[in-house]
Amino acid sequence: MAEARDLMQRYCDGDAGAFRELYALVAPRLLGYLVKMTRDRALADDLLQQTFLKVHRARSAYVRGADPLPWIYSIAHRTFIDEARRHRRAVVRVGEVEELPEVPAGITGESADRRDEVRGDPELVSAALSTASRSPRPPRSPGRRSVR
Question: Same structural domain for residues 82 and 114?
Fold first, then answer.
């Protein structure tokens, strides 16, 4: 699309108005593409904004004279994949958990008062800590300190 190509080149040359025109030209179709992939309008809107932010940041990598649409759609697609991976990591599927840890005797999910009782009982605290799963951490290199 020659118009998109011209707008992208003008934008790369520093014409902020060209970006607004490019956005107006490309965003509606790109949003439709993202809605079809996500089946969620709000998420598609977020991905559209992330895509154009990435286009802005990567404009120096744009190959002048090339049609920008495949490049922009590629950025949108990778943004969608990143979001899907992030979402997949955040979701815990109970059906996939092989075995849930045993709850130590005396610990229930009742109330803050009960929680205070448990805190005061060293045996219950020790039992709870022994069943808590710890996330594996990579070994630290000697001389390197972790920053938190």
Answer: no
Q: Which pLDDT tens digit goes with each residue over 71-107?
A: 999 999 999 999 999 887 766 555 555 665 565 555 5
Asked whether residue 86 falls in the same domain as residue 110, the answer is: no
3-state secondary structure 123-148: HHHHHHHHHCCCCCCCCCCCCCCCCC
- What is the tens place of the pLDDT at every residue in 21-55? 999 999 999 999 999 999 999 999 999 999 999 99
By CB atoms closer than 10 A (0-12, 13-18, 19+), residue 48 is buried
DSSP 23: H
Distance CA 97, CA 133 (A): 13
Q: Are residues 77 and 113 in the same domain?
A: no
Host domain of residue 49: 2-90
- Provide the whole-model pTM: 0.59
